[in-house]
Amino acid sequence: xxxxxxxxxxxxxxxxxxxxxxxxxxxxxxxxxxxxxxxxxxxxxxxxxxxxxxxxxxxxxxxxxxxxxxxxxxxxxxxxxxxxxxxxxxxxxxxxxxxxxxxxxxxxxxxxxxxxxxxxxxxxxxxxxxxxxxxxxxxxxxxxxxxxxxxxxxxxxxxxxxxxxxxxxxxxxxxxxxxxxxxxxxxxxxxxxxxxxxxxxxxxxxxxxxxxxxxxxxxxxxxxxxxxxxxxxxxxxxxxxxxxxxxxxxx
Length: 251
What we know:
The protein is of the alpha/beta class. It has a single domain (about 35-55, about 75-250), classed as Rossmann fold, CATH 3.40.50.300. It is built from ten helices and ten strands. The strands form two sheets. The chain has a six-stranded mixed beta sheet with strand order 6-7-8-3-9-10, with helices on both faces. It has a four-stranded antiparallel beta sheet with strand order 2-1-4-5, covered by helices on one side. A hairpin with a 2-residue loop joins strand 9 (about 210-215) and strand 10. The model has no long low-confidence stretch (mean pLDDT about 90).
């Protein structure tokens, strides 16, 4: 079976040759089709940078990245964006304040060449748990959780195979976080999606993912199954530290 996503010996850089910073150092991992894979670590560990390299937002990289068996080069074409979509951390920043939900979804569907716009918008809103009453509202008329549901609907509009989730609940109230995580779990099951989820929160990763790469200072120090993570069976001291910090926060 073809892997949904393969990263081999990926290094990502920022700046120029006078002031070059290596944000990711020789990262490698594989995500099977239909799986949910976590990238976990503290702020600045390089986990979001991997998503930026995948989507073309961090153009200075070397190594190999492939999606559904197709090797990625420097440019991302329409086929890539039909296959891979991203849900960003902050639903307040990711939606245009002067566009209604209808405009956001219509524009996205037209961009991807769909014609049955009306029925698709209705279905997308239903999929993310928003009724037809939300269709003509603007972002300022929505709660944080509702905005993130709209952002998820927009990501689903192209009928992607892979969703990249960059801390999708960290900007939301704790009471809303579980709702969005449960929605994402349901959508993965219903649509056969593959997830790559970035988070600093091991509890979120344990809830959402099958396997995770633990990152520190731009390097993957360990790839661990969620079963082993829950049981505390770690191979690297840094993973143990993260687990202990997570337990202490909950306590």
